[in-house]
Write a structure and sequence with these properties.
about 450 residues
Length: about 450
Amino acid sequence: MKKLTLFLLFFISVNFLTAQYKNPFYYGENVIGGGLGVTWIDEKPHYAFRLFPEFSLGKVGVGLDINFEVGPDGRLRSENYNEFSDYLSIIRFVRYGKKKDPFYIRVGALDYATIGHGTIMYMYNNSPSFDTRKVGVELDINMDNFGLEMVYGNFAQSGVMGLRGYMKPFADGAIGKIPVIGDMEVGASIVTDVNKYAGVSSGTYDSETDTFSPVTDDGSISIVGIDLGFPVLRSESVNIDLYADYNKIIDFGSGFAAGIEMGFYGLGLVEIKTKFERRINGDNYLPSYFNPLYEIERFKLDKTTGKVTSKVAVLKRTESAGNGYYGELLVRVLGTFDILGSYQRLDDYPESGVLHLYTNILPKSVPFVARAGYDKVNISKDTDIFTLDDRSYLYAEIGYKPLPYMLVSMVYNWTFTPVRDDNENVVGYEPQKKIEPRVSFIYEF
């Protein structure tokens, strides 16, 4: 059944993903929306209420996400609001400007943040679990000759932090008039995770006291990198960029990547963007270490067996992952919907596949809505792609508008719920299935 569900999703989406994953409740920049439904969470019914307004005034935008799930006993589900960050996350985001503006800042949920060309941090999601939503910040400064990108994953506790600065050293003067060389971009990045479990690869679990004690802990994980970018062609219809990145995981290995990005516009009803990258990896190195499911991969404790799985443990045993490739394709049709997908694979590491799919179809003239987002990591074989497990994240909604302001839809979530110890510390995540028939009321202005 799981494979059939994903196959149908894949067929409907015809997916090849978007560079900026949108809020799954996104209908526009000025919307008052809310919904009622019945959510089955791990086969148990809960009555759900959600309010998701978004407002935009000039460069300023605000989005809220208020969610209540009430069980058959009439009580609010405990995971809805059991942490201070849950209350903060009611404000889904506050932003100023948009990506690629001279100044852009967004505070709240980070929907797939990328730094630079994505070889260190690629579509990092700070809130892959609805039950542990986090508040972070994303900041971009884009000037003519220099710029800055910054990501901070979680204000409530120590976690992922990233920074990249870049400049165009030859933009001014005689050299700046030389094609390609004059617009060359030079960047430097550092991304680190200072979460207390970031470097833990083994430990002991005491079931009687429900406590975990690390045995092997490498501390924070930090990656530094330098990059070059060459804009080969710039026109109204075609953009072509070449780039090269070199990254080093401190106390571990290093890797190099070279790629090409192309955009084709003015094709009538269709716009296309594509990216292809070849990766040359040393021992104990993983490209795009901070990926969409990193918050889930960082550390997981199986309380039944006491077994620990973590991202740093994978890094340690990756003695020879081999080189690899990465590809991405975005197709935008009629300005109405985006279909995007990306995939990476390493030559000698069987479980290295990382897939990201997304589509968003919101036609104005037809009364239906279809949207979906899917992430899968550690893919070892093709048939593995269409299996939902603890390496998968899925959101899908299909609906019909009987009235312009009403949407009747079915929502499916394969997400995660936190595993906590007796002190309410999150020591891992386990998969959670949510199915919700929903009636939503949306007013755009």
